[in-house]
Design goal:
- It is built from seven helices and eleven strands.
- By secondary structure, the protein is an alpha+beta fold.
- The strands form three sheets. Strands 4, 5, 6, 7, 8, 9 and 10 form a seven-stranded mixed beta sheet that branches.
Length: 261
């Protein structure tokens, strides 16, 4: 069965005004159609000529974009037959970004943490939105989280240098950042915050997380304060956008049995 084109690119993305190469923008769009099921496994996708007309670009640009998907094993191209969806990719939506304190303290089952670097005397990049009084110095750890042979999170962790002697080597490879700091002897968390923004993978992130350049990523910043207001943890994480899921419990604003008019 031949799949009909999804919503056109024109009016959605201005290819001429973006710094991202056109073929990469198109590869992201076509990849999204496959992952979402708009183009399903076994479907024949529109021809290069049809996609060229739909997206308003040269056929060579479409071929470049499709070449990216072919390299990823998502499509197959057959001479005189057309291009078919080979796979919609594995179901990767398993990595939950927790939004409550107890969830943030849980370690991910089956995850492994790789220490890429460790350096003392560092300072985290802080903004006017960050809370707490900065410590005099931090231990900077860069860690990469894996599951089933796939990296899914690249994290820069800044821990108050005064707490570093309390950290056990085993915990560095098994505990999430907040879990790690909350487990240290004598530490009492007074406040903690989490912020999330959406972005695209740059060259370094794409290489470290084994993902396409400019594919979606989730940037998550977590900070923790001691009870005296000292900023003891700043953790900046970059998650692969194709594995992350965020579930947020919403309050109805009123008790069961009551309704507002």
């Amino acid at each position: 069965m031949k799949s009909s084109p999804a919503a056109g690119l024109r009016g959605v993305v201005d290819l001429n005004r973006s710094a991202v190469p056109r073929y990469l923008q198109l590869a992201t769009l076509f990849r999204s159609r496959i992952h979402s099921g708009a183009w399903r496994a076994g479907d024949q996708i529109p021809t290069v000529e049809e996609l060229s007309a739909e997206c308003g670009v040269a056929r060579a640009t479409i071929r470049q974009a499709l070449g990216q998907l072919e390299d990823e094993g998502l499509i197959e191209r057959f001479r005189a037959k057309g291009t078919f969806v080979r796979s919609q990719g594995p179901n990767r939506l398993w990595c939950e970004v927790e939004t409550d304190w107890s969830g943030l303290l849980r370690s991910r089952e089956g995850a492994e943490i790789e220490i890429l670097s460790s350096q003392g005397g560092a300072m985290p990049p802080l903004t006017s939105a960050d809370i707490g009084q900065p410590a005099s110095g931090y231990r900077h750890l860069r860690r990469r989280h894996w599951r089933d042979g796939q990296p899914f999170l690249l994290a820069d962790v800044y821990l108050d240098e005064r707490l570093w002697p309390k950290v056990k080597a085993h915990d560095l490879r098994t505990r999430t950042a907040l879990n790690l700091v909350a487990s240290l002897p004598g530490v009492k968390i007074g406040d903690a915050r989490q912020t999330l923004t959406i972005g695209m993978a740059d060259v370094e992130v794409a290489e470290q997380l084994k993902m396409p350049l400019n594919a979606p990523v989730a940037h998550v910043r977590r900070v923790a304060l001691e009870q005296d207001g000292r900023l003891i943890l700043v953790a900046d994480g970059i998650y692969r956008g194709d594995v992350v899921r965020i579930d947020i419990k919403l309050s109805t604003g009123h008790s069961a049995g009551h309704s507002s008019g």
